[in-house]
Amino acid sequence: MDIDSTPVPPPQEYSDNPAGYQSESSMNFDYLHGLNDAAARASSSASSLGGHVSLPETSRHFSDVAGGGIDVNASSTQSYGYVDDSKALDRFVSVLDQLDARVEKFRKDALGLQEKKDFLLMSIDLIKSHDMLQSMMEAEREEIFCYIQRVNARLSTVDLLVHTVRDRSQEDALSQINALIDMMITIGDPVLSRQRCQQYLNACCSAAEASSSYEYGVDMDAGPVDKKFESALLGCTLDDQKNIKKRLQALMGYLNKQTIRN
User: Fold this and answer.
1) CB 3.0 to 4.6 Å from 255: which of 34, 136, 147, 194, for a disulfide?
2) Beta carbons within 10 angstroms of residue 255's beta carbon
């Protein structure tokens, strides 16, 4: 029986892509240039008028009223050299919109890297629990475990944390889910692990379809479900539920291959 050299492939969208990791240093502050240029133009125009910068139209109107008169020609005053607050607001909103989009992309990329690390950790666990190791000579087995420790130690030098807002009960539910999946991986019996994994996946499908079946009155049977896993899953956040399902789907793909080879 051969050991699959790529036991748990990462999702397609997170596959290595050298072009995707090119430096963005040259464009990091491009979206700020328009704002800086606008400020420079306003400052230059104000200096050419002796340092005077007019109040916005509404402010000038109320100043005239407070002074005892109304400037009927205020609306016809030339705007050259004055700071237009409405345009400045639009510029700031535009820049912040671009920043918001980049922050969202950054967070998505970080989540992808975090998921990729989880798949690597799961691959290491699968290799450690592989039944072929038991048939090796003790010296060979120790050599493999030393190699595993080196790889694991190198992976542990990368810390990734994308904060998901959870309350105490959701933290406990996620911890319970991770413990159940770890136990399933270390069973050592591919057939039993596959059956357990399928029950966990059925629980994910059952949880996702519960609202739909209730709404439309349809009885959706996803197959045998591990009730303990389902109970813990329902206590997790929606983002955690999606990530757990992705993890189980990748694990099931590997277990299917391993079962066929055996």
Assistant:
1) 194
2) 25
| Two tokens, residue 43 | 């400052």
CATH for the stretch 165-262:
1.20.58
Per residue in 213-254, pLDDT tens?
A: 444 333 445 678 999 999 999 999 998 998 899 889 988 888
Task: Report DSSP state, residue 18.
Answer: G
Q: Are 234 and 207 in contact (CB under 8 A)?
A: yes
* Cβ 174 vs Cβ 166: under 8 Å: yes
Find tokens 């000038």 and name the residue. Answer: 60
Would you say 166 and 173 are in contact if contact means Cβ atoms under 8 Å apart? no
Say if residues 243 and 108 touch (Cβ distance below 8 Å). Answer: no
One-letter amino acid identity for 120? L
| pLDDT per residue as tens digits for the range 151-173 | 999 999 999 888 888 999 999 99
Model-level pTM greater than 0.70? no
Residue 237 DSSP label:
-
